[in-house]
Design brief:
With 277 residues, this protein is α+β, with helices and mostly antiparallel strands. The chain has three domains: 89 residues, Immunoglobulin-like, CATH 2.60.40; 89 residues; 83 residues, Sandwich (Immunoglobulin-like), CATH 2.60.40. Helix content is 28%, strand content 36%. Strands 5-2-7-8 form a four-stranded antiparallel beta sheet, with no helix packed on it. Strand 10 and strand 11 form a beta hairpin. The longest helix has 42 residues. It is elongated, with a radius of gyration of 30 Å.
């Protein structure tokens, strides 16, 4: 069975992109199953029409989709289902939403504390902030309305104002923690990820070198051990259909190596370290 994939390509302004070259290269270059048959899928390509639309038939499986227009190349990984039809928007592999980072959680905590401080100070009269407890504004209004109960209401207002001050202090502390956590998160992102380009090198006689093209990625400062893995994303290539496999190997405390097995001249990669559980 083949699946008819259709959709449209638009630019950042949501204007249709006509004449864009769109290719689908199997990833990895392995055979696929379609019903009861085993098929070795080939790379397929098409061009968008005058209104940016495309339609083509693909064997179910995972592909690297590349879009070329205006001298730029954009790529994404897609999965074609074992179904008769599918839309291009549906087959894009979107990352699973992750839990909040420490920085993001600290920001949420700061915002919550700030809002609580405002309630203790300014919540309207006769509206509870907590069960049986009211804002400083409520007690101030009651004190002004009743001369007889002014002393007691003023005391309650002072207590609420103190609670508001404590909440404001907590909000400021949470904000400072958010700034520190965000800085730590940014530092981690810089030291644990990066972009590299691997370029094929020729021998002096003009023939391609027999070794697979590779590059070394240093880690500074060095890690305590090599218990990590490397996630790799292909961000571009001279020919995406000839990249082959991309591998991380020789993992060490002070760095690792990346290589590709195909015949293209160069590959652009984005890497990220993943801590082993």
């Amino acid at each position: 069975m083949v699946c008819t994939v259709s959709g449209s390509i638009a630019d950042a302004g949501l204007d249709p992109v006509a004449g864009a070259a769109v290719s689908f290269t199997p990833y990895p270059r392995d055979v696929a199953r379609a019903g009861d048959s085993v098929i070795a899928p080939a790379a397929e390509s098409t061009t968008t029409n005058a209104v940016g639309e495309l339609s083509l038939e693909l064997v179910p499986g995972t592909y690297v989709m590349a879009i070329k227009y205006n001298a730029a190349i954009f790529s994404a990984k897609v999965t074609v289902p074992d179904a008769a039809i599918a839309s291009l928007a549906e087959i894009l592999l979107n990352p699973t939403p992750s839990n909040l980072t420490a920085a993001e959680q600290a920001v949420v905590d700061a915002q919550t504390a700030r809002d609580r401080a405002r309630l203790w100070a300014d919540e309207i009269e006769d509206t509870e902030v907590e069960t049986g407890a009211y804002s400083a504004k409520h007690h101030a209004a009651k004190a002004g309305a009743s001369a007889a109960g002014a002393a007691g209401s003023a005391s309650s207002a002072a207590s609420s104002a103190s609670a508001a001050g404590d909440a404001q202090t907590a909000a400021e502390a949470a904000r400072d923690e958010a700034v520190a956590a965000e800085a730590a998160s940014n530092f981690a992102a810089v030291t644990l990820s990066g972009d590299v380009t691997i370029t094929r090198v020729s021998d002096s006689d003009g023939w391609f070198a027999s070794a697979e093209p590779f590059t070394s990625v240093p880690l500074s400062p060095a890690r305590a051990d090599a218990s990590y893995s490397v996630e790799i994303q292909i961000t571009g290539a001279d020919d995406l259909g000839r990249v082959g496999r991309v591998l991380a190997y020789d993992l060490a405390t002070n760095g690792f190596k990346l290589k590709f097995t195909g015949s293209t001249d160069n590959v652009q990669l984005r890497w990220r370290l993943v801590e082993e559980a």
